[in-house]
Amino acid sequence: MPQLGESIAEARIIRLNIAMGDSVVADQEIIEVETNKAMMGVTTLCGGTVTEIRAEEGVEYAVGSLLGILEATEDEISRTGAPTIGEQTEPGLLDESEEGNLHFRQTEQSYEEPKLVEPSVRGLPVPAGMKGAHYISPRMRARMDELGLRKADISAIAGSGAGGRVTVEDLEQFLEYISDWPDSAASPMRLAVADAMRRSWSRPLASVGLPVVLDPVLEFRSRQNP
After folding, report:
1. Nearest Cα to 11, choosing from 35, 41, 45, 43?
2. Residues 6+ apart with CB under 8 A from 39
3. How do beta strands 48-53 and 120-121 pair?
């Protein structure tokens, strides 16, 4: 059971959308769950074949519980960072008993001081806090208008210009880099969220009604058009 929210410790299985032996793709919604806040879908981390299903409809499972096993190739796993079965069942990392709630149980495992990883694009560090990084040249602004981009869209691009400015060459290099990324269909849950967000911008958030006496207006119109 994945972590569905910071304050959510468990979720109830509403529907299983898969069966034993089914082939799935990355980001496919396979389980519908219900929490104390909302209903949502659980998607796959990578493509593969369902070899075991341990979840049952109508049962609540704690965060970290094993719901099933997906057999995938090493290439699929390496692209998503999903743990292998051997890594999941290491002592101290996963307990399938009722006391094995990873949200509340402390485990005995080696602790390593986390390393600070700087964001980078193709090995180039992303500048942060530079005064010149907020400046956009007229040529760069024209190119952004052609692509329909905003200032926030280029905030993660490493700038090679003076003072960390993002140049047109930096933008073109970044676009060429992300063009090789594989496309995957959005899950039904993500599509529903996107549609709800779109409706929130296309509809007024509040309506105000005021009474208007139209008698003088109707009287004036009748005089103008007898």
Report:
1. 35
2. 14, 32, 33
3. unpaired
How many Å from the N-terminal Cα to the C-terminal Cα in the chain? 75
Residue-range domain boundaries for the chain: 10-88, 120-178
d(CA 72, CA 66): 16
Note the CATH architecture for domain 10-88: Beta Barrel (2.40)
CA pair distance 226, 218, nearest whole angstrom: 11
Read off the pLDDT band of 127 (50, 70, 90).
Answer: very low
The mean pLDDT value for 54-64 works out to: 89
Q: Which residue reads 């057999």 in tokens? A: 71
Query: What are the tokens at 210?
Result: 């005021």
Share of the chain above pLDDT 70, in %: 74
